[in-house]
Design brief:
Blueprint (H helix, E strand, L loop, with lengths): L4 H10 L1 H33 L6 E6 L12 H8 L14 E12 L6 E9 L1 H5 L5 E5 L8 E5 H6 L8 E4 L2 E10 L8 E5 H7 L7 E5 L6 H10 L5 E5 H8 L1 H36 L1 H9 L4 H28 L5 E5 L6 E5 L4 H27 L3 H6 L2
Parallel strand pairs: 3-8, 5-7
Antiparallel strand pairs: 1-9, 1-10, 2-3, 2-9, 4-7, 5-8, 6-7, 11-12
Length: 388
């Protein structure tokens, strides 16, 4: 015979305070576990959303980011002439030769400096990123000392707001616009005219070449051809792949740190669940004896106590997930280990994270409840009834 699941539920409900405390401990661990996964998902979403699958990024071979890359003008012109480059109005190549440098700015409300990416681009560069929308002011004029700042930069750094001026490269650069890039990595950048920025930083080479593919399926052939060309020292990636790679080191650090913290906290939660279930067994010895005398087998007793522990875990898991879901209203900033620039991103809750968090909670409940359940199932009927 099987013991009805309602029996397990009612026993938990009869011990409200103990149930709430144990479920709360598990909920805290699930909150930490889910928050770490959300942080990693938010980072990857921010960087992957930065790129377009139909765009290609060309950088120096071996460079991990645009900041470390150099492409001379001759190689940039060669890439521009390739048949895989899409043509726009008037037969002009949908290609942008860009210059990327790092500068240090002071955060608002503090004296803390942080690196910010300055991207020199052109009208083509803007056309290649349709996700960018001006939310205040206007776009910079080519050939001028005007710049536009991403939303995150404008909010977080001194002198980066609309109408303010930032000094770098020996010049004053006026912020004439603020853009929103849909919570992508571009929100953490400042953009200006590529020719003016190269003059200011005394650079004669580009950092990268970005172009729209005329035929998305032709990318692999293009990448292989330029990789094997002895005249070139460049590599190419789809823009989505390039920015996904940019998140690799930081993402791995977040995941490993989060897993270690979750593992440490989960031990405490499982011990708490085990103590709770052992106490339940100790308080119900005569009840267990009565169930055995009524014909319920050891397996039924084992399952009944495991169900109680799993119910505790699922309650804790749901509570932890609900608490973690509110983290989506917050954003944080940190240093991207690939580009060494500040990157702002938000916590992101996905269906996969919900499933993994609930499974994690159930595993804690299973491990925490297994020994007490075995102890209850192994009780001798006569000894249990005598305890009454």
């Amino acid at each position: 015979m099987k013991i009805p699941y309602l029996y397990s539920y009612r026993n938990l409900w009869a011990r409200k305070l103990t149930t709430l405390l144990t479920a709360g401990g598990m909920g805290l661990v699930v909150f930490v576990f889910a928050a770490v996964l959300m942080l990693d998902a938010g980072l990857q979403k921010t960087l992957v959303d930065t790129g377009s699958y139909d765009n290609a990024v060309v950088t120096r071979r071996g460079a991990e980011s645009e900041v470390q890359s150099i492409i001379d003008r001759q190689q940039a012109a060669y890439i521009e002439a390739q048949p895989e480059v899409a043509l726009g109005e008037g037969g002009r190549a949908m290609l942008s030769k860009e210059c990327v440098v790092l500068i240090s700015l002071i955060k608002r409300g503090s004296e803390t400096p942080a690196n910010v990416i300055i991207r020199g681009t052109s009208a083509n560069g803007l056309a290649l990123r349709p996700q960018l929308k001006m939310i205040a002011g206007r776009m910079f004029r080519p050939g001028s000392n005007e710049i536009v700042a991403g939303r995150s930069v404008a909010e977080r750094f001194n002198k980066a707001g609309l109408g303010e001026a930032i000094r770098f490269g020996g010049r004053e650069w006026v912020v004439v616009g603020i853009f929103d890039a849909g919570k992508s990595g571009f929100d953490s950048e400042v953009w200006g005219d590529v020719d003016q920025l190269m003059q200011a930083f005394r650079r004669s080479v580009y950092s990268s070449v970005i172009f729209k593919l005329a035929n998305s399926d032709a990318f692999d052939g293009f990448a292989e051809r330029i990789r094997s060309d002895p005249r070139l020292t460049v590599d190419s990636k789809r823009e989505t792949r390039y920015y996904a790679d940019q998140s690799e080191k930081l993402s791995a650090f977040i995941r490993y740190l989060g897993l270690v913290l979750s593992a440490i906290f989960s031990v405490g939660a499982m011990i708490g669940a085990m103590i709770t279930m052992f106490a339940a067994v100790a308080n119900r010895v005569s009840e267990i004896g009565a169930l055995r005398a009524l014909g319920f087998q050891r397996g039924a007793i084992l399952i009944a106590f495991l169900v109680e522990s799993l119910l505790l875990a699922i309650v804790g898991g749901v509570v932890g997930l609900i608490a973690a879901s509110f983290m989506q209203f917050f954003s944080i900033s940190t240093i991207n280990f690939q580009s060494f620039a500040e990157l702002a991103f938000s916590f992101t809750l996905t269906p996969g994270i919900i499933v993994r968090s609930l499974i994690f909670a159930l595993v804690m409940g299973l491990i925490g409840g297994l020994l007490p359940a075995i102890s209850a199932a192994r009780m001798n009927i006569v000894d249990a009834l005598r305890a009454a």
